[in-house]
Amino acid sequence: MARMVEMPEKALKLQCTLAKEKVLSTQSTQLSYLLVEVIPVGAGEAERMPLNISFVLDRSGSMAGEKVANLREAVKLVIDQLEPDDIISIVIFDDRAEVLVPSQPASDKEGLKRLVDKITDRGGTEMSKGMRLGLNELRKNMGRDRVSRMVLLTDGQTFGDEDECIRLAKECQEFGLPIVAFGLGEDWNEELLDEVAGATSSSGGFSEFIQEPSQILMHFQDVLRSMKGTVAKNAYLTLRLVQGVSPRQVWRVLPLISNLGYQPLSDRDVQVPLGDIERDVGQAILVE
Questions:
Q1: Same fold, 2-45+232-287 and 49-228
Q2: Most buried of 27, 60, 225, 274 (most Cβ within 10 A)?
Q3: Residues 165, 196: contact at Cβ < 8 Å?
């Protein structure tokens, strides 16, 4: 059984499908599933929301050679594709961190690219220092009508600050700010990056493996494409349940699988965080 609910002011439709058309009322506990599809409609390219993107980039000694060269070129090509009203910031870190490009409109593209050319390799790796500065830069321009992301890339193991990285990721989630975390090569801490990005998964954060430096550009382009396709940001789904019905788990199954959880609002209402919704993808939510 499917039911369609239109919300034209939001350019979204909800299609709700129950696993069982009818559920018998009995004394025993029963398990059922509800699929909620969030379908964007009527949103064109001209309605694109401006962006707020911060690159937090590892420039430690292990990034020497092909890695840092490809990193520079990938960031410069992203800059070329930003609109003048988009906001960009760039933070680089080794065992220290610095704001290479303070949060600013992407209007002076040549000037921004000259700064990117200054990224060179050096030192060790303390990722939390870069994350802290990146969050500070993003917060300067976060708003309801601007799509924000932290794009984090590292090729190594951070030293002694893992707990602080996770704490900062949870702080990002409090602001509804997704972290897209990329691990480059073979020597990065997969468990840590998964936990960092996973802390923001309900907002749309995720982690990915980049095998070769030449693939950095492709992954950065995917992030930019996703941001440009956003039609609703920091969305929430509210479920009003009949008496005796309660959710056990809520999962996003499209576009990325993640456990969203839920927040009770009353004895009947629960709220589910959806994060940002993309024009050509939408979302599918499975409620148990």
A1: no
A2: 60
A3: yes
CA distance 66 to 69: 5
| Averaged pLDDT for residues 155-168 | 91
- What are the extents of the domains in the chain? 2-45+232-287, 49-228
- Pair 58, 156: CB distance under 8 Å: yes
Q: What's this model's pTM, rounded to 2 decimal places?
A: 0.87
Strand ordering across the sheet containing 51-58? 97-105, 87-93, 51-58, 147-154, 179-184, 206-210
Which CATH number is 49-228's, of 1.10.1040.10, 3.40.50.410, 3.30.360.10, 3.20.20.140?
A: 3.40.50.410
For the stretch 101-151, pLDDT in tens is 999 999 999 999 999 999 999 998 899 999 999 999 999 999 878 999 999
Distances from the Cα of 35 to the Cα of 46, 69, 109, 198, angstroms: 31, 45, 44, 23
**What are the tens digits of pLDDT across the range 174-224?**
999 999 999 998 878 889 999 999 999 988 899 999 999 999 999 999 999
Evaluate whether 190 touches 287 at the Cβ level (below 8 Å).
no
Output the CA torsion sign for 195, 200, 204, 210. negative
pLDDT at 243: 81
Q: Which amino acid is at 9?
A: E
Q: Return left, alpha or beta for 160; rule: phi > 0 is left, psi -120 to 50 is alpha, else beta.
A: left
Q: Which of 124, 137, 223, 136 minimizes the C-alpha distance to 182?
A: 223
CATH class of 2-45+232-287: mainly beta
Nearest to 234 by CA among 158, 284, 176, 150: 176
